[in-house]
Write a structure and sequence with these properties.
The chain is α/β, with parallel strands linked by helices. 53% of the residues lie in helices and 9% in strands. The chain is built from 14 helices and 8 strands. Strands 1, 2, 3, 5, 6 and 7 form a 6-stranded parallel beta sheet that branches. A two-stranded parallel ribbon has the order 4-8. Helix 8 (187-195) links the parallel strand 2 (175-178) and strand 3. Helix 1 crosses helix 5, helix 6 (105-132) packs across helix 7 (157-169) and helix 7 (157-169) runs parallel beside helix 13 (298-313). The chain is elongated, with a radius of gyration of 33 Å. The two termini are 42 Å apart. It binds zinc ion. Zinc ion (ZN) is lined by residues 152-153, 203, 207, 243.
Length: 342
C-alpha cells in the first residue's frame, strides 16, 4: 500500500476506536453507572489481575460477608470466570471496532480518494514531463549543483518505469545506457523515455566487452545498438558506455562516440541492497558527478525512490549526461572518456 493510503488507514482505525469506546458504562458487568456497578467493576478488575492469595480480593471479602459464607473459594472461582468472560468480550469489542473502522464506507471512500489523488499527481507529473520533453535539454539553474544518475544494462520495464515515475515527481531526469538486443521487448518503456525527456544511450548490442574484439566487431556492436534504439523510439543515441568499462586503444579508436564512464560506483549489481546503494551516494556526491547504477534490479528502483527526493532536497538538480555537459560547457568528443563533468 502506498504511503498516503497507509496513513489514512491508521488514522481511520484510530478514529474508529475513538468514536466507538470499547466500553460504555452499561457494558460493565453490574448495573450501569450505579455505585454498585462501579464497585462490581473494581472488584472484577482486582480478581482479574490474578492475585491468587486467599485474603486479598481483601476489601471485597471484608465488605461482602454474605457472599463469603458460601466459602471464598467458590466465589473467587465465579469472579475469575466473570473476569475471563469480560476479557473475552473486551477483545471481541476491539476486534469489532477495527472491523467496523475498515468496513466503514466513509473510510473506504477516503482510501479510494487518496489512491485516486496519488494516481492523479503521478499522471500530471508524467504528462508535464511529456510536454516538457520537446527539447532534450531542459532549462535548469546553472548556478545550482547537478549530478547525473545513470542506469546500465536495461531496458527493464519493471524497474525503469519506477525510476521514471519518481524522477518525474521530483523534476529529475537520468540517462539509460541500454543493451540493444533487449530493446525490442521493452519498446513501450523505451518510447516512454524519449517522450518524457529521459536520455537513451548505447551500451552495445549484446553487452560485449569491446576490448576483446577487433575494430570491425567494435563498430558493429556500437552501430547495431544505435540502430535498434533508433528503430524503436526514433532517437539515435549520442553517448555510449563500455560494458564493464573495459577499454583499450582499439576500442577508443573505433567506438565513434563519446565514452561516458562514472566516478561514483554504487555496486548495486553486487549488493542488490537498496540501503547500501543509497549509502554509496548520499553525503558523498558533488556537482558534476556521474553515478553508476543498473536497471535490472528492483532493489535499485527501491534505492532510486528514496535517493531522488533526498538528493533534490539537498539542492541537487538531477540531469541527463547531455544536460550536464551542456551546462558545464564541456564538449563531448568521440573516442574520449568522461568519468565526471567537468
Ligand atoms: Zn553493463
Amino acid at each position: 500500500m502506498r504511503r498516503i493510503a497507509k496513513t489514512i488507514l491508521v488514522a481511520g482505525v484510530l478514529a474508529g476506536l475513538t468514536l466507538q469506546p470499547v466500553y460504555g458504562a452499561g457494558q460493565f458487568p453490574g448495573a450501569a453507572g450505579t455505585e454498585t456497578g462501579r464497585r462490581e467493576a473494581t472488584r472484577v478488575i482486582r480478581v482479574g489481575d490474578g492475585d491468587g492469595s486467599g485474603g486479598s480480593g481483601g476489601q471485597e471479602a471484608s465488605s461482602s460477608q454474605g457472599a463469603s459464607q458460601d466459602g471464598n473459594g467458590s466465589q473467587r472461582a465465579g469472579d475469575i470466570t466473570d473476569a475471563v468472560a469480560w476479557a473475552d468480550q473486551a477483545a471481541q469489542t476491539v476486534a469489532d471496532a477495527l472491523d467496523q473502522a475498515v468496513m466503514d464506507p466513509a473510510f473506504q471512500e477516503a482510501m479510494a480518494q487518496a489512491a485516486a489523488a496519488e494516481a492523479e499527481a503521478l499522471a500530471a507529473a508524467n504528462a508535464a514531463a511529456q510536454a516538457a520533453a520537446a527539447g532534450a535539454i531542459r532549462e535548469l539553474d546553472p548556478t545550482k549543483p547537478m549530478i547525473a544518475l545513470t542506469y546500465d544494462d536495461g531496458p527493464q520495464s519493471s524497474v525503469g518505469n519506477r525510476i521514471m515515475d519518481v524522477m518525474n515527481l521530483y523534476g529529475g531526469k537520468c540517462t539509460f545506457f541500454m543493451v540493444g538486443e533487449r530493446v525490442p521487448s521493452h519498446a513501450a518503456e523505451v518510447q516512454r523515455m524519449v517522450n518524457e525527456g529521459f536520455e537513451v544511450a548505447n551500451h552495445t548490442q549484446d553487452h560485449k566487452y569491446l576490448n576483446r574484439l577487433g575494430a570491425a566487431e567494435i563498430r558493429s556492436q556500437v552501430e547495431a545498438c544505435n540502430n535498434t534504439i533508433q528503430s524503436v523510439c526514433g532517437v539515435r543515441p549520442t553517448l555510449m558506455r563500455l560494458p564493464g568499462g573495459n577499454k583499450n586503444a582499439t576500442v577508443l579508436a573505433n567506438v565513434g562516440m563519446p565514452v561516458i564512464l562514472w566516478n561514483v560506483d554504487t555496486l548495486d549489481w553486487k549488493t542488490r541492497n537498496a540501503q547500501s546503494t543509497i549509502s554509496s551516494v548520499l553525503g558523498k556526491v558533488k556537482d558534476g558527478d556521474i553515478i553508476l547504477m543498473h536497471e535490472l534490479y528492483s532493489a535499485t528502483a527501491d534505492a532510486t525512490e528514496r535517493l531522488v527526493p533526498a538528493l533534490v532536497s539537498q539542492g541537487f538538480q538531477l540531469v541527463t549526461v547531455s544536460e550536464l555537459a551542456h551546462y558545464k560547457g564541456i564538449p563531448l568528443n568521440a573516442g574520449q572518456i568522461y568519468n565526471r563533468i567537468p
